[in-house]
Amino acid sequence: MKVMTFSHYKEVTEEILKDSYAIVIDLLRATSTMIWAISNGANVIIPVENILEAKLFKKLNESVLLGGERGGLKIEGFDLDNSPLSYKKEVVFGKAIVMTTTNGTRALKKASFAKRIFLGSFINAKKTAEYILKEALKDDMQKIAIVCAGTEKKFTLEDILCAGYFADIFKTCLEKIEVDDLSLASYELYKKFENDPHEILKYSYHYNHLKKLGFEADLEFCLKKDFVDCVCEYKNLVVEKV
Amino acid sequence: MKVMTFSHYKEVTEEILKDSYAIVIDLLRATSTMIWAISNGANVIIPVENILEAKLFKKLNESVLLGGERGGLKIEGFDLDNSPLSYKKEVVFGKAIVMTTTNGTRALKKASFAKRIFLGSFINAKKTAEYILKEALKDDMQKIAIVCAGTEKKFTLEDILCAGYFADIFKTCLEKIEVDDLSLASYELYKKFENDPHEILKYSYHYNHLKKLGFEADLEFCLKKDFVDCVCEYKNLVVEKV
User: Which reaction does it catalyse (chains A, B) (predicted)?
Assistant: First the structure.
């Protein structure tokens, strides 16, 4: 099995992904939020690239919820922001949610070249990694691409730490695993800060941006590991539980 | 002072670099080799992008030496490969050398948007970093961009470790330094493997590629720190000692 990591979704192409499974990570906060919404009983999440598109869905069906952010904050006229803590069971159960975020939803679309696309986050990494390995074995799939969403145009540390956790789980589960340089670097960074990722993230860009906006509770939430049981897949333009 | 790191030269643009000093790193082996050649008395190095261009220089002036690689190996008709160990004093002293390599020479050209461009390697990192800080102070320059050449299209671990060493020196010399996420990650990775970078690089792509080609001695050479005193600058299309 070969594991490749990409620090930004703009780096991936059809050529790279066509024979792979992909894991898309936008740890703070899009993929964490989507996974938590699905885990709380949302039926389906429809990621869209822009606000107009989201509003069109609402016009077509008033029962959908609109969620997402621009600049980390709730979009005017939307029902929900991009904080996982807003996606409580009483709000999302049985609902369809249309989401648009700066990087996460775009990363999912770009990853669509892959044979199957899964959502990654610390909150359900182990379940997701184990499911992917089981399916890859059945499917004779030899390549897994970890696609970090990145922030704006840049390398984003929290996504890389989460990618490193996936590499760690794959290394533990598989006897033979080939990793590219960024998977190797992510793994080593993750292991260095495994017990307290805040210790390094407190110096990082996006983590601090969210902290300044008052989302400390989200940071705590998104960095906790494996308290969610469901695995989420992006397929036919929507995110659902597998 | 703000330090930004880029994992591949293709990521940098005029917009990013125009108010910066740049350090270009192609540790294995282009920048290490150029620095060593200059340190051994080569007058000037002219980096060019392709083989034809290099051969044209030789036609114009037979005394120039042609150096470089494709696929890690010497180019047919060239005087020298890309191994620093080939650039001995008795070969290069007083000479002009035209070089073309897969990533390093292209990275230098791409970095030309910066106000000044320096060559980086472990072999002269401390001298280079200290010189840059001194000049930046005089010049009121607030941004340093570390531009890793990368291998093919990807993140390359040895360049990142060297970038981390530069970040380490900058942190030591300056009271206040702002780092982006990749500088922070590079610094932490470097510190983890500071005493033996081979320990992680033995799992990395390009290091192993060169090992298979028989260049073990180059790997040892390029990973030794600070035994070279000169600082090399790329200016008006050539590399010279500052």
Answer: (2R)-O-phospho-3-sulfolactate + H2O = (2R)-3-sulfolactate + phosphate
